[in-house]
Design a protein that fits this description.
The structure holds 2 protein chains of 2 kinds. Chain A is an all-alpha fold. Chain A contains 11 helices and no strands. Chain A folds into 2 domains: 174 residues, Orthogonal Bundle (MetI-like fold), CATH 1.10.3720.10; 35 residues. Chain B folds into 2 domains: 52 residues, no CATH class; 228 residues, MetI-like fold, CATH 1.10.3720. Helix content of chain B is 75%, strand content 1%. Chain B has 14 helices and 2 strands, in the order αββααααααααααααα. Chain B has a two-stranded antiparallel sheet. In chain B, β1 and β2 form a beta hairpin. In chain B, α1 packs across α14 and α6 crosses α8. The longest helix of chain B is centred in the N-terminal third of the chain and has 34 residues. The chains are: A mainly alpha, B mainly alpha. At the A-B interface, α1, α3, α4, α5 and α6 of A face α1, α4, α5, α6 and α7 of B.
Chain lengths: 272, 299
Amino acid sequence: MNRRFSWFNATSLTLGFAFLYLPILILVLFSFNASKLVAVWGGFSTKWYVELIHDQAFLDAAWVTLKVAVVSSTVATVLGTMAAYVLMRAGRFLGRTLFSGMIYAPLVMPDVIMGLAFLLLFISIGLDRGIFTIMLAHTTFTMCYVSVVVSSRLVTFDRSLEEAALDLGCTPFDAFRSVTLPIIAPAVISGWLLAFTLSLDDLVIASFAAGPSATTLPMKVFSSVRLGVNPEINALSTIMISIVTVGVISASLFTKRQIARARADEQAAARG
Amino acid sequence: MTGLRRLVLILTPYSWLIFFFLIPFLIVVKISLSNTALSIPPYTPQLDLAQGWAGVKDFFGNLDFENFSFLASDPLYYTAYLSSLKIALISTFLTLLIGYPIAYGMAQAPDEWRPTLMMLVILPFWTSFLIRIYAWMGILSNEGFLNQFLLWTGIIDTPLTILNTPTAVYIGIVYGYLPFMILPIYSALEKLDGSLIEAAEDLGCSKASAFWLVTLPLSRPGMIAGCFLVFIPALGEFVIPSLLGGTSTLMIGKTLYEEFFSNRDWPVASAVAVVLLLILIIPIILFQKNEERQREANG
């Protein structure tokens, strides 16, 4: 595409990014508001953060959410990587269409339907709902995202490397561990991160899958903001947004450095 | 791959998905065909594994289409379906109108800006959806930031009621799903061969007609993909109408949730889910077709 960056382009980018980021900035700003009123500035204060840290219900919910996210995203990464490998490498087998359908369906399925389906399953088999059932539900829907991320890496992967390892006497498992896995590792890691974020974020599926005994952070946030703005939630949101921002920016700086290093290596090799 | 290893590799994720994805759906379909009962769980018959195969047979026997005729007879449900369709369609169109110029601006921007611009579009993906929608509650309410600002500038002299109206839902959907629209359009525009536009201009096209005749048609696959990526989740959306829509906005995702948790009518909630799924199948198939055509076109 030929680039003539015009005033029109500059204006639409400025307005577009203002639209995307102003609401978040306002939210962050009002988390430091001394007044409880929505848009009345009552001076700078960190009292909502102090209240948040002393709110046991929030701390409990955060702990539940973290446990669910770590366990479900880890299991989902194992299952999702296996599923991606099956889709890309296992060739034909009975019910392959059904299998790939079940991988792609959760990506477009409304949360309310998935949540309802999980709940009815847990009740039908008489499983008590709680933190364990949230983990099962989250593992199931996030493994599909992992498998999409990993299979897109497997598509561009040079298969002759795997074949060479097999020809040289590796067992399929060794070939996977010492050749395939290191190459697809970045995709597996981003799959894990995606699954982790989706699990942290999910409100609807968790509300269905959690019985009265377990409350996740999004469920707690939802029930406290239903009736209106709550400055404690602004403080919580600010903390979560800062963590995500730092994480994403450092990840992108890291990849940028990796690319620069790879390029320098290539140039050095070419001069060689 | 050797036989046993291959079998284990296939069977592990396969059986997980069958047990936790396929079977739950069959149960939803089955319960949508059950009778409402005043007990917990509030439907009959129930799956009784202690009875073995006879229990399973009993569970999947006794079909009853009563809940579906109930959905058709009560105006609440079809109004909710129609209003979800309308809200999803209009907000998809609005997202396209707002997203296209942003994607276009990104594609025209100098090379060294692009990674940063991309990151700015992707960053909201990683931020909690719930929090991003919640942010608008403080902006749109009667004493909220937007009204304060408009009163201060003197554009209005009485606060506008935006929160708890369909307008707030439109704003919420556009805001929440904008990155899904920008990314596919941007990737279509980025691949576009600039010499085509130069050729059009050399042959006497004005800038505007070159855009209209060359750029816009060539970015159509991206626009179509973006529209589906917004429309499909918007149709079943729950968080946006519950936080921003108030009681006046009917959307089917919210109706299903309330039918289940407030009215505790599980069979009707399941029937609502089955019909929503049937409505969604058409756009999902069209989306898959569009993606396949793209993959073939790209070789």
